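Hi everyone,

Forwarding the result from last night's run.
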Amino acid sequence: MNDITQYSIQIISERKKSKKAELRQSKERIQELTQNLFSPPETKNKMDLMMHHFNSGMAAYDGIMTGVKIYRRIKDIFSGRKHKK
């Protein structure tokens, strides 16, 4: 019985190591994608760079406002009252 327990512990330990390696690779991939997504484009034209910054700012603002609206709707649903416009 002890051999079966030891064998199971070894299997669990090996699986834990492989899952940690997968998580590490996934984290590196997410960091790479995030960096590519939010890094400014390589351009020599200052107007394009300025437009990229403006578009990024508008996207962030739009995301925040959408989140606030969703939060208010959920809050109103669970509080049992209607939101006045």
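The mean pLDDT is 85.

Cheers,
N.
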